Amino acid sequence: MRQNIIILGIGSLGIGAFILGVLIAAGLGIDIVQGWPPLLVKKTDRFSCQLESDINQGKEVWTVMYDNNEGKYPWLGIVITMGGGWTPAERCSEIERRLENYRQDGLVKLTYRQDPETPEQDVICAITKSSNGCPLLLTLKKDVDGYEALREITYALVYGTTVYHNSEGKSVNSNFSRESPVVDLKPFLAREDKLAGDN
Prior knowledge:
Blueprint: H1 2-25, E1 47-54, E2 59-67, E3 72-77, H2 88-104, E4 107-115, E5 118-128, E6 136-139, H3 146-153, H4 155-159, H5 167-172, E7 183-184, H6 191-195
Antiparallel strand pairs: 1-2, 2-3, 4-5, 4-7, 5-6
C-alpha cells in the first residue's frame, strides 16, 4: 500500500511536470526566469519579445520581433533607458502588447511627439489607419531626444541591417531625418496587416 502511494505521488509529479512543460512549450507557462517577459503570446499575435544581438550596443538587448509569415524579424530594440522602474524585458513586453493592439487598428508608421501629460518628456507614438493623432507607444526619459531615441530603437528598420530589412524598407525610409522623423512600416508588414484597418 505504501509503495502504491509513493508511486502515485511520483506519477502525479511526473504528470504535473509534463503539463507544465507542455504549457511552457505552448507559450502559456509561468515566467520562470526572472527578468524575462511573460510567455503569453497568442497564436494570432505577430509581435513577440526576445533577446537579440545588437552590433551597435555590443551585447544582447530585448527586442520586439514581428512575424510577417516568412519569419520573425527585429523591429524595435530596447536600447535606451526609459525610466519608470521597468526592466528592459518588462518594457519590451508592454511595447509588444501595445503594438499588437495598434496592428489590429492598421499600424502604418512610428514617429515621436511631445506629450501634454509629460511636457518634459517626448514619446514614441504609433500612427494607425484608424487613429486620430498618434497614440502613445512608449514614454522616454526626461531630456531624451525623441528623434535620437526613435532612430536608435528602429535602427534595423531604417538602415536595413538585417537580410530582411533592406531594399524596399530602406528606400522607403531613406528620407528619415530630424525634419522627417517618421518610420514607414508598410514594407515590413505581412499582407494581412497591410490590409488591416481598411474596413
